[in-house]
Structures are given as C-alpha cells and as structure tokens.
Write a structure and sequence with these properties.
alpha/beta; D-Maltodextrin-Binding Protein, domain 2; 5-stranded mixed sheet; 4-stranded mixed sheet; 19 helices
Length: about 425
C-alpha cells in the first residue's frame, strides 16, 4: 500500500478479479512438459531471469541490491525485468502464452493462490526449501492445497497513526478500543481538522482498511451477513455520521488519507508503514503509531498482511527451477529480511527476528506486533477472495452513503 512505489498490497487492491483471465495459464505446465521435458530443455542454469514490480525508487534499487547479493551467493547471473504493478499479471499471461515465464517471479501475496491453482508455480517442498519460523499468516498467503509456493522476506500491515501534538493538547492518550476511538475522534474534531481519516473507497483498498475492524470483532469473510461484520461497519458509519470523519472517506485512497494527516486535516489515521518515509520528511510533524483499536478490551488486534512473495514458476527446466528455489530461499534469509525491513519500513516475516528489528527501527514496533497476529486475505476463501472483497467495499459504500443500514448493506451488496 505504498504511495511512492508499485509494491505492497495496493497493487492487488486496485486490480479487478483476474481468475477468469488466469484460466488460460492452466494449460501451461502441460505445454511446457510436452515441449521441454523438464531439464532436457538444456537451459543455462547459471543465468536466471527475474520479474517483479518494484519499478520505482527507492525500492527498485533496494530490492535490486538484495537480488544482486543473492545472485552472488547462489552463483548465478540474473536478468531482471521490472514492470508497473498494474501490468504484472498481464505480463505473466503473455509470458505463459509464449512459454517465456521467468525463472523467479514476484507476486503480490493475494495473487499467489490464483496462479498456483493453474499449475503455473512449483511448490517449494520439491526443493526442500525450509519454511519454518515464518509468520503463519504469510505462509497461508503463499499456500495452495497444503503446499507453500513462495516466500516473502518482509510484509506490511495497518495501524493507527496519531499526531502527538494534537492529542497532547487535548490530554488524549492513543485509543485502544472502539469507544475510545470514537471519543478521541470527536474531541479532536475541530475547525477543518477531523479526528480520524481512513479509506473507504470503492476498490479493494477500501476492503483492506475494513478488515482489521471486521476480523478483530470476530467477523469473517465466509459470512459477511453476521452481526459481528455489521457491528464493524456501524463503527465507520458512526464516525462519519457524527462528523468525526469526513464524508469524503468514500473517495479517499490511502495516499489521500496520508495527505490529509500530513496537512493537519486529520488528527489520526488508519494507514500502513509505507507512509513513514513521507511522514519523516516533514520535520515539523510529530507522530507515533499504535495497533488498530479493538472493539472490547482484551481482544487481539487482527489485521491483513500486505507484501510480495517470491515464487518459482514451472518453466520446464528442472536445473533452473532448482537454482530458482535456492534464490527464493536466499531472498528470505535472516540477513536479507532485516536489511530490507530496515531500509523499506516493512516487517520481517520470521517472528524470531522481531525483537532485533524493533530495536533497530523502534517506530515499527506497533506494526511488528500487529504482524504477529495478522492474517492472509486469501486464507479463508483462497482464489474466491476477490468476490468477497468486492462485496465488502460495495457494502461500505452503501452504508456510508445512507443507501442501506449496516445490517442490510452486505445482503444488498451480495444481491447487487
């Protein structure tokens, strides 16, 4: 969800459901096997092609440095191609059709299961890649039918940012519950400053921002008509109807939300750590962050995982696939996780690294703690997740524009 690069979950959130288009990938492994016969293709295993969507700085260089380091460690030369995030899946489709899939493919984590379902990815168990120690949420995101298809060196999630000076002026401590959030937002709303900003835009981005409230409250995408889901939506409605949040939240992307916060138009915001470089660039802005508030004290905050997974496509060249698997394992080594997390304000995916990381980057403490209990968006529904995400943001729009009550909105969205 980073506003300055093509990485993070923002890309998947802005794409339409791709399952129908990806169906043509299903024949690819068969075609490759018939034409290439695995390692009999005779490819040069000393060279690996890589495709990713880190095409903007600073991520292009930061990721590139990690890739170069792994190339040296694994003993290969790499040929890297970067494309804009919105173009990645179309590029994969084209390469599948022409049998030119890369040896190493980076995917936004919600896309992994859809592509794995086509047979286009090779399970890491085929190469004895060690997947122990990784946060369960990211393993769920990278798994399909019991097999892990990729690894992520770092991930991101959502938290609550707050303007320290504005809260201090009102004697308000950072809210930890919904009641505290509503009380604080109301008290902080003054003049042209709203107490809270969040994104409820009619894209997957709006769904992503709703998930911490829905999941933490016991709601689930397998039953969007439950009272727990309606209660989470009621919270957003209450914040907007009371004037504590702007009615414009239905049009704001997360980048827009950050702009509001940095301009002093919002005292608090729901957003992710990809905004930290921009926040740090303003020397006059004093801010901090906590985990997303829960409904009742004692609940465990549960937020969605964002980030990218490195995978091994089925190319028909066994020798290259073995090397590619070594490369994927290298990218997610402890050393690379810590280096990339520190440089990019993301969170290492191995839970044992959390304490060391937070000691180096203390402003990431809340997000690191949040990741420990974070969930994959595709963990429950797999490749059917995009349909649920669409219903979620449609229901949010209906409720926030007064076209349906929170209790009715999800039924109407499903029928829509």
């Amino acid at each position: 969800m980073r506003s300055t690069t093509a990485s993070n979950p923002r890309q998947a959130l802005r794409r339409p459901h791709i399952l129908g288009s990806l169906a043509i990938l299903a024949i690819t492994p068969l075609a490759l096997t018939a034409c290439g016969g695995g390692a009999a293709t005779g490819g040069d295993a000393d060279t690996l092609t890589i495709l990713d969507y880190y095409n903007n700085e600073p991520d292009k260089t930061l990721i590139g440095d990690a890739l170069d380091s792994c190339a040296e460690e694994v003993g290969v030369t790499i040929e890297r191609e970067t494309v804009p995030g919105k173009d990645l899946i179309q590029k994969v489709l084209q390469q599948s059709s022409s049998k030119t899939l890369p040896d190493v493919l980076m995917l936004d984590n919600p896309d992994v299961q859809e592509i794995a379902a086509t047979g286009g990815l090779s399970p890491l168990s085929d190469y004895d890649v060690d997947t122990s120690g990784f946060a369960q949420g990211i393993l769920d995101a990278a798994s399909y039918e019991g097999e892990v298809y990729g690894l992520a060196p770092t991930v991101n999630t959502l938290g609550l940012f707050y303007n320290e000076e504005l809260l201090a002026a009102k004697g308000i401590t950072p809210p930890t519950t919904w009641d505290e959030l509503k009380t604080a937002a109301a008290a902080l709303t003054e003049g042209d400053t709203y107490g809270l900003a969040f994104s409820s835009i009619a894209t997957y981005e709006g769904s992503w921002q709703f998930l911490p409230f829905m999941w933490t409250n016991g709601g689930d995408e397998t039953d969007l008509t439950s009272p727990e889901v309606a209660e989470a939506l009621q919270l957003q409605v209450d914040l907007v109807d009371s004037g504590s949040a702007s009615k414009s939240v239905i049009n704001w992307s997360q980048a827009d939300v950050n702009d509001q916060f940095m301009a002093g138009k919002a005292a608090m915001m729901i957003n992710g750590p990809w905004q930290i470089p921009a926040l740090n660039a303003d020397p006059d802005l004093k801010y901090a962050s906590v985990q997303v508030p829960v409904n009742k004290a004692g609940q465990t905050p549960v937020a969605p995982l964002g980030g990218e997974v490195w995978t091994v496509p089925v190319t028909g060249d066994d020798a290259k696939q073995v090397k590619a698997a070594e490369f994927v394992e290298c990218i997610s080594s402890d050393e690379n996780q810590l280096a990339l997390a520190e440089a990019r304000f993301t969170v290492p995916t191995k839970t044992a690294l959390a304490e060391e990381y937070v000691a180096k980057v203390p402003e990431m403490a809340a997000f690191t703690e949040q990741v420990a209990n974070a969930r994959s968006r595709t963990g429950e529904l797999g490749e059917e997740w995009p349909e649920a995400a669409t219903e979620i943001y449609t229901a949010i729009q209906l409720a926030l524009t007064g076209q349906a009550t929170p209790d009715e909105a999800f039924d109407q969205a499903a029928a829509g």
